[in-house]
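Protein in question reproduced for absentees:

***
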Amino acid sequence: MKNRALILFILISSAALFFTNSLAQGQKRLIQLSGIVLGPDSLQGGIPGVNIYVPKAGRGTPSNAMGFFSMPVQVGDSVVISAVGYERQYYIIPNHTSEFLTLIFELSEDVTYLKELTVLPFPTEEVFKEAVLALNLPLDDAAYDKNNLDAELLALILKTTPMDGYSNQRYMLDQLNYTQSSKYVPITNPLLNPFNWAKFIQSLKQNKKKK
């Protein structure tokens, strides 16, 4: 009986030890993966919005505005680093590493060259030639220049053309300069100016003489 009990105890202990080792081997170590994602020009800083994730585990995180990221991973995980406009990279977490792993990923630009495309307003070259011949352009350059330099047309263009950005800036600066320069200058009333009254009376006398 004692031998049977001893054998049973040894078998139970061996099974428990084997189960414990198997459970320990099945659990992977957690590692805190941190780092920064850079572009081809590292002087511009990190790339924001880069997706760093483990597809099989369903875990991931985006990089912040400075390109930094931090996320928990397990040993043996395949980490994907992807962003729009850059080539995708992969990284496998090694077995022999510490609990904190810091990496620097440098992504290369994914440039796609398209074939040259020429856009024409006409379906065929023959239709284009017919349209050019039907324009009836004036043979005399002087008449053509005269129409383009018409005084009424130029005056209308000058009146209806809005100011561009530079003109608006100059107008604003001129108004600001005038406001600052006349800020402490007293405003005079033209009705109280005797010289204006003298000119007004003189103009009335001249009008009476003409009549």
In short: The CA atoms of residues 51 and 62 lie 5 Å apart. The beta strands are 30-38, 51-54, 59-62, 68-74, 78-82, 89-92, 100-106.
